[in-house]
């Protein structure tokens, strides 16, 4: 005689326990795989950065090493001048304000800023110094870009040549199943990305950390540690938010790049096989197929 629970289910409690264990094992396997993939991606990113760093600092090319050192020197000079700009502007405003007030305020201001005022005779000279600091910062940035441009172009050339040579060293199976359009788009995109990565490594990440440290130190000396702490926490919050949004957007960017590669592959392959398309009068069909790839 069948009881109620057995009428609706023929599984035993042991079977259910086995299913739960299997589900937990599957979830654990998926989580472990995701962590492993993330770790592998981080290792791959670090390998890319180390490879590009070796191209920047070439042991057999003293000219390029000198250019890198000069570029970093110009960068440091630009950051130092850039930090001085607001202080010179403040000094000029304070001097002009107290100069139009009473003599006591002017004497107090002169005594408090005697060291700095020894470099400037009049408020006009302070304004000139302010303009010189701004122009000097911009000039050093331009010199940095000009000096480092040859290194960046040489790195792009070397990496592109190595990629091209590597493609010729691959076996026949790869070339028989090639996607010419997508491959050419990947090579082009990678070559253009090298310049961005080099600029970010040399001129954005480390210099920004240096500038934040200098500004935080000046704020701590002038206004106390709480102001420097607030500034550092604000920058840290901004960096955290930017990184999280960038990582979230990465999957959409990858999907966009894949769609772009597929569309390029379709276009190039269709043009390569132009005679076949014309022979079978498939121009309209090829156009529709290309449009479908563009919709993605």
TrEMBL record:
Region spans: Disordered: 1-25
Protein name: ABC transmembrane type-1 domain-containing protein
GO cellular component: mitochondrial inner membrane
GO molecular function: ABC-type transporter activity; ATP binding
InterPro entries found in the cross-reference section: ABC1_TM_dom, ABC1_TM_sf, Type_1_exporter
Membrane topology recorded in Swiss-Prot or TrEMBL: Multi-pass membrane protein
Subcellular location: Membrane
Keywords on record: Membrane, Transmembrane, Transmembrane helix, Transport
Coiled-coil parts of chain: none
Transmembrane segments: 68-89, 109-130, 193-219, 225-245
GO BP term (any one): intracellular iron ion homeostasis
Pfam families, A to Z: ABC_membrane
């Amino acid at each position: 005689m069948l009881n109620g629970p057995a009428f609706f289910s023929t599984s035993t409690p042991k079977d259910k326990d086995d299913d739960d264990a299997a589900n937990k094992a599957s979830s654990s396997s998926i989580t472990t795989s995701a962590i492993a993939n993330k770790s592998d991606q981080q290792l791959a990113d670090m390998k890319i950065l180390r490879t590009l760093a070796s191209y920047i600092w070439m042991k057999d090319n003293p000219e390029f090493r000198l250019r890198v050192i000069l570029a970093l020197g110009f960068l440091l000079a630009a950051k130092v001048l850039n930090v001085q700009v607001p202080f010179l502007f403040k000094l000029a405003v304070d001097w002009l304000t107290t100069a139009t007030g009473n003599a006591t305020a002017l004497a107090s201001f002169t005594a408090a800023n005697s060291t700095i005022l020894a470099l400037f005779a009049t408020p006009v000279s302070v304004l000139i110094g302010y303009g010189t600091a701004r122009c000097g910062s911009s000039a050093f940035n331009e010199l940095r870009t000009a000096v480092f441009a040859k290194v960046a172009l040489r790195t792009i050339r070397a990496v592109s040549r190595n990629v091209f040579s590597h493609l010729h060293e691959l076996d026949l199976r790869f070339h028989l199943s090639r996607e010419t359009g997508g491959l050419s788009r990947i090579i082009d995109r990678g070559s253009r990305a090298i310049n961005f990565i080099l600029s970010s490594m040399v001129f954005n990440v480390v210099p920004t950390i240096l500038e934040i440290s200098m500004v935080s130190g000046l704020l701590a000396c002038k206004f106390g540690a709480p102001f420097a702490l607030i500034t550092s926490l604000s920058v840290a919050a901004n960096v955290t938010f930017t990184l999280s949004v960038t990582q979230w957007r990465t999957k959409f960017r990858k999907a966009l790049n894949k769609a772009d590669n597929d569309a390029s592959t379709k276009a190039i392959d269709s043009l390569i096989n132009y005679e076949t398309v014309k022979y079978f009068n498939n121009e309209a069909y090829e156009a529709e197929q290309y449009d479908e790839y563009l919709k993605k």
